[in-house]
Amino acid sequence: MNTVAALAGRVLLAILFIVSGVGKLFDLSGTNAMITAAGLPSGLALPVALFELLGGLAIALGFMTRLFAILFAGFCLLATLLFHRNLADTMQATMALKNLSIAGGFLCLFAHSQMRWSYDSMRLARKGEIATREAEQRTREAELRAARAEGHASALANGQTVPVTDTTYVTATDIDGDGVVDRPRRKWWSVG
Hints:
The structure is a single chain. The relative contact order is 0.09. The chain contains six helices and no strands. The chain folds into two domains: 2-111, no CATH class; 120-159. It is an all-alpha fold and 192 residues long. The chain has helices spanning 2-26, 28-37, 45-61, 65-83, 90-111, 119-157.
């Protein structure tokens, strides 16, 4: 049940910014007028609209959740400082509290972002599965080497001749000294 609630909270937070970003994209001149009225430079309407739309989609899909959660928390706090400073006005105070609440929600999402049904958790689960499979493979190879050595030793103890096997040695690099061959990591931008 906690997973469903966390997913619903993440999607509901994202919907707010997806809808807001689409609204800003369809009314760039109005958004630009609002931004310049607050004393900010013109031309920020498109970047803000794209940030809200793309960031909202990333949050909804669970892609780079922690990064976008902290960016949106800062965005909400900055919007409160720039656009809702007049706390004597009831409407401005309500909007400031709304932004503070949304920032709090994003900070909670930042703290608890590794949940099921997100791209980030699927990536971590897959990484764990690969590590488990590699550990099992190393165990099987070690058991096979031990069985061969045991068979070789028992054959020699019984006076039997043991065929010489052509063993090829491969130089392996173990930088961190954990007994596991270190492989160069594939860069995220490389293909294949």
